[in-house]
Write a structure and sequence with these properties.
Largest sheet: 7 strands, mixed
Number of helices: 6
Strand order of the largest sheet: 1-2-3-4-5-6-7
Radius of gyration: 18 Å
Length: about 270
């Protein structure tokens, strides 16, 4: 079976850990919001109900298998409609089983999951999540920020009063622009420039994988790499990331860490 755990990060923000991915629960005085729904394996809804005394709704940051697949358990679910075309393939049971198995080394309980442990594919429509949408939880406000690139509908969430921005997978140490639905580098740079407009609104970045926080300078480093790629001045190092043969924009070692002392990198399709 799939086990979930949670940890309080700030007064209003709770991290929920599933195999290889985090969901985030933000609680105000009147209501709450769950950001992402993991793999759709195990009873995430029952777990959230056990720790959240408030009515809540769901925001999907982007339509990849480890973020959207549990959506069928919940009634009110928002997702940018630019990602709708990805849902059928990303939520398929075969896709969930295949990708979840990659985390079995660190989460051995995955080996015991049966088909009955997976929630069904969502049939109810997703509510559209648009750039600039604001949700009042009671003393805590969430603002949706559209940062296209990792997917067309990739959304980041500003938690205003906490001065925290949820980046998800949209801008990371290892930004993937080769996964399902990823956009060209030029469009990704446009998304990052839009994110840069919010620079004075937050101090802390939270994300979906590995270390749950990351430094804000990741944004500037990713923007710099986009410019280098577009000018044909990046390292263009052939390597393997998440099982795919791709180019690294900055030179990396065998662990895919940059060799120049900086942190962020972009991995994009090899020709």
């Amino acid at each position: 079976m799939v086990n979930f755990t949670f940890e309080q990060i700030t007064e209003h923000i709770f991290k929920i850990t599933a195999p290889g991915v985090y969901c985030w629960l933000v609680m105000g005085k009147k209501k709450a919001c769950l950001i992402d729904t993991a793999w759709g394996a195990g009873d995430l809804k029952a777990f959230v109900d056990s720790i959240c005394p408030l009515p809540y709704f769901v925001i999907i940051s982007h339509c990849h298998v480890d973020h959207v697949s549990g959506a069928a358990q919940f009634d009110r679910v928002y997702m940018n409609h630019g990602d709708l075309f990805l849902y059928e393939g990303e939520s398929a049971l075969s896709k969930r089983k295949q990708d979840l198995a990659l985390f079995q080394k660190n989460f051995p309980e995955i080996a015991d999951i049966t088909d009955e442990d997976f929630v069904p594919v969502r049939t109810e429509p997703f509510l559209d999540l648009r750039d600039g949408d604001v949700f009042d939880l009671g003393g805590v406000h969430l603002e949706a920020v559209h940062v296209k690139g990792h997917t067309p509908g990739m959304m980041m969430i500003l938690i205003r009063e906490e001065r925290v921005m949820f980046y998800g997978d949209g801008c990371t140490k290892h930004t993937f622009l080769f996964t399902n639905g990823a956009l060209p580098v030029q469009e990704y740079l446009e998304g990052l420039k839009h994110l840069k407009e919010y620079d004075g609104c937050y101090d802390t970045v939270i994300r979906s994988h590995n270390l749950h926080t990351q430094p804000k300078y990741i944004l500037d480093e990713n923007m710099e790499l986009c410019e280098r790629i577009l000018k044909g001045q990046d390292a263009r190092q052939l390597c393997t990331a998440a099982g795919h043969r791709v180019y690294a924009a900055a030179a990396v070692d065998e662990k895919l860490n940059r060799t120049d002392g900086k942190t962020a990198n972009i991995f994009y399709p090899a020709d």
